[in-house]
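Hello,

I think I submitted the nicotinamide-adenine-dinucleotide job twice by accident. Can you confirm which output corresponds to this input? Input:
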Amino acid sequence: MQQSVFDQMQQMGHEQLVFCHDPHSGLNAIIGIHNTTLGPALGGTRLWNYNTHEEAIVDVLRLSRGMSYKAAISGLNLGGGKAVIIGDAGKIKSEALWRRYGKFVNSLNGKYYTAEDVNTSARDMEFISMETKFVTGVPEYMGGSGDPSPFTAYGVFIGMKAAAKKAWGSDNLSGKKVLVQGVGHVGQYLTGHITKDGAKVYISDISDAKLKEAKEKFPNVEIVDNNKVLDLDIDIYAPCALGASVNTESIKKMKCPVIAGAANNQLADENVHGPMLIEKGILYVPDFLINAGGLINVGAELDGYNRERVMNNVEKIYDRTMEIFHLCETEKIHAQAAAMKIAEKRMRDIANVKARL
Ligand code: NAD
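Support: Only one job matched these inputs. Its output is below.
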């Protein structure tokens, strides 16, 4: 029997789930607020054509929880939140939809700040900002920090280098074969960094248009069939599409020694697939640690944006990744568990600080 929404919220530790509906603009959105111990919840809005509403609920619950961990491990004073809008990105986007959604975000009075995610852009944030100040990632010409993807990609590059250092003794990616699955915003910026570092890059996507765009920007990359990526003999798998691509079936077929990519919720089930990766000898960089660059960037808008400080914090992903690998070894736990342990400790410690005079 399927669990009720409240059971799922309890199990994952959520504070609030907000359902937003507007028939005029066609808006059906769910805002998930996981944990606001460290500060207001901040996380992007994903626009996706979910098959069922249950699928959307599971996604927003998983994504918002990941944001709490991401903020905590990155030393940010932010809570975890995320939103999903249900619909076809090619059809439902309109000024009215974004502004109506902005009103719903505004009604939460700053408990939740939104930003970009899959299928949402800085331009969409501009519409949202017409109705609420609780939005980040607005265009630079409006005083915001713009698209967070370049920062996410840079952080993934840094974390990938740390993993390479651990796996091969050098963080130079020269000659390494890297598969970037999903060449959207982050995937393309990441491809830029790793090709520059000398890696041989393979790309796959479900969108031919995205593959063409990436190939035009980076002529040396090799396009591979998205259904055959697991047959490839590669050194690093970089999942940069949607979640759960690391699952029982895919792990069995994987030949890569390292997984380091941008996608949120890469492990279909952390309790099953974290240990499975260890058994298979695959080094995994926890998703919410390696892809925190974008959150670090948009979060900085709340404190008065300073690019140098942002880059400094994004570069710390290298040491944080090393710290996780160390904890895995000393405590004999898998990487996701190690990262969660550090994040949970910070949340507990700060809750204790806040509870006292
Ligand atoms: P995007 O929508 O720009 O790109 C995603 C790409 O993946 C698209 O080109 C899409 O066609 C492709 N794709 C979708 N399903 C696929 C599949 N099954 N196989 C192969 N390709 C597929 O999104 P993005 O902003 O680049 O984000 C990519 C991932 O990184 C997402 O999981 C997102 O949540 C995560 N992430 C993004 C940011 C950010 O700053 N944009 C920050 C943290 C995490």
